[in-house]
Design goal:
It is an enzyme of class 2 (transferase). By secondary structure, the chain is of the alpha/beta class. Helices cover about 35% and strands about 20% of the residues. The structure holds adenosine-5'-triphosphate and the ligand O=c1ccn([C@@H]2O[C@H](COP(=O)(O)O)[C@@H](O)[C@H]2O)c(=O)[nH]1. Adenosine-5'-triphosphate (ATP) binds next to helix 4 and strand 7.
Length: about 230
């Protein structure tokens, strides 16, 4: 059976300890989780990391397009940190940057990306989509579609998709599974509309899970049912 190809969306917070935007301990933990999961699951892995540890593109003194450019640049910083830390851990990886966000990594080239993934390298996509008005969740859905991923994993701070944000609403109820239509109809804010919609069009399932419980990434990659899966 062909290896499963997985797009892992990490939040920027996976590199932060709360006081430091990029902390050595958090970076090391994230890399260890990835390394142990990949080593024992034989998946082909690609990663998109967000920027929420440093910047979310909204500020009343900065125009939206400028703020979005800043967000994309932060994803480059986070991706560079992750890429170096993976290399230090002995993992082979390749870093590609969205076209238009150049100079710090190789430009995105779909054919080359697929060759790297097929060789067993972990591929990191930096710079978002390269366009303002998008997010790294949408970037993850876009890159997942471009590399023909079998699934998108959203590694986050909550253990699945709820009827409302569980951090803000204690009565929120967790879903074990959902269809794309349900996720879109219910306006669930765990991912943005564009990301859900793109995954629906390309039939790529999304699993939302708690990345901060040690071993959870390994469990998902090994097919264990945790978190919430959104699918057709
Ligand atoms: N319906 C919902 N179910 C679960 N979580 C939800 C829901 N609505 C909103 N959330 C919130 O969405 C957050 C997911 O955001 P996450 O931490 O992954 O940030 P992100 O915006 O993807 O990170 P980054 O900006 O770094 O990419 C959760 O922490 C949760 O509080
Ligand atoms: O394609 C993209 C991706 C991201 N941005 C901007 O970057 C920030 C950070 O991304 P998060 O997904 O919120 O971590 C985002 O808020 C946008 O401002 C972008 O413009 N285009």
């Amino acid at each position: 059976m062909a290896a499963k190809r997985v797009l892992l969306k990490l939040s920027g917070e996976s590199l932060s300890d709360g006081s430091s935007s990029i902390s050595a301990d958090s970076l090391l933990r994230t890399v260890n989780e990835i390394k142990s999961a990949v080593t024992c699951s034989k998946v082909q892995l690609a990663i998109v990391i967000g920027a929420g540890n440093i910047w979310r593109g909204a500020c009343k003194f900065i125009e939206r397009v400028t703020a979005d450019k800043m967000g994309m640049l932060v994803t480059v910083m986070n991706s560079l940190a992750l890429s170096d830390a993976l290399a230090k851990a002995g993992m082979k990886s390749n870093l590609f940057s969205a076209n238009g966000v150049s100079g710090f990594a190789e430009n995105f080239n779909r054919e080359k990306v697929i060759r790297c993934i097929e060789q067993g390298n972990t591929v990191i996509f930096a710079g978002g989509t390269g366009n303002p008005f998008f997010t790294t969740d949408t970037t993850a859905a876009l890159r997942a579609a471009e590399i023909k991923a079998d699934m998108l994993l959203k590694a986050t701070q909550v253990d699945g998709v709820y009827s409302a944000d569980p951090k803000k609403n204690k009565d929120a109820v967790k879903f074990n599974s959902l269809t794309f239509e349900e996720a879109l109809d219910k306006h669930l804010k765990i991912m943005d509309y564009e990301a859900f919609s793109l995954c629906m069009q390309t039939n790529i399932s999304i699993t939302v899970f708690d990345f901060y419980k040690d071993g959870n990434l390994k469990k998902v990659l090994n097919g264990e049912k945790i978190g919430t899966t959104v699918e057709a």
